Amino acid sequence: MQHGPVVRRRKLGAELRALRTSAGITSGEAARLVGWHQSKVSRIETGTSGTKPADVRLLLDAYGVHDPQLRELLLVLARSDGDGGRHHWWHAYRGVLPPTYRDFISLESQASAMRTLETTVVPGLLQTPEYARAVTRAAVDGLPEERLDTLVEVRLARQDVLRAEPPLRLSAVLDEAVLRREVGGPGVMDRQLRRLVEAARLPHVRLQVLPFAAGAHIGVTGPFVIFSFSSTSDLDVVVLDHLTSSLHLERKEDLEAYTEAFNALLNHALSPEDSLDFIAATAAGA
Question: CA 250, CA 11: separation in Å to the nearest integer?
Fold first, then answer.
């Protein structure tokens, strides 16, 4: 397991190496084409050093890669604070958001699909403003009101990915505890559950509830997120959140293990239709 930036460098390097090989170009030839020393190309491809978006553009041009989606995704992977890359909306909050959170948002903004298991709280992309405020206040003790406002603002801005064209495809498995845990009081929770019902009716959102009656399941080890990208499955990544950091898993065997785990959870969970009824009944106090 590695922290996000390390995984991003390794993924970027592996993809650039594959593109170079597909173009029939040696690392030495690539270096000559862009005016570098061969060792720089090697360091980028092995992920031992970071690279700027401008350098990635040079390599992609040299390899004849013109797919706009693939180019944009690789440029996002190359971005790091202060590197002069394309600024995204979350850069305005860099003084407030920790690097791991900014890294998560950048992946979320570029992903085509997101699969997530939530065991304690409603997924951030589906939270109401009131619920988001209550969760953030509970997670960060003694947070000044101004900073709390900013973090809630960021949480809501992230939800634009569900309104984009095309929108992010979201598949979420919610443990029943997510629906039962009263966050922010009865009124806040009632409105949040009704928001889930609305979201579940969107064609690109799939919610399934894992009821207590399902017993022990593979998800008891904790929540996780799997990001998938339309350009290449080689850039898919699993994100595990911890109290003070996030860990990213990108090895093929890790991705396969978490994909199998998520599919197993889908089989144990209620169907999307029954889940919608379950959420609605919970909101009604049934």
Answer: 8
Spell out the residues 6+ positions from residue 85 whose beta carbon is closer than 8 angstroms to its own: 52, 53, 75, 78, 79
Taking 3-state DSSP, the helix, strand and coil percentages for the chain, each rounded to the nearest 5, stand at 60, 10, 30
Q: Tokens at residue 103, please?
A: 């890294």
Angle at 102 between CA 98 and CA 153, to 5 degrees: 90
Using DSSP's 3-state secondary structure scheme, residue 283 falls into helix
What does the alpha-carbon distance between residue 165 and residue 232 come to, in Å, rounded to a whole number? 19
CA atoms within 13 A on the CB side of 17: 16
Q: For the sheet containing 205-210, what is the strand order?
A: 205-210, 169-175, 113-118, 224-228, 237-241, 246-249
Entry pTM: 0.78
Average pLDDT value over all residues in the chain = 87
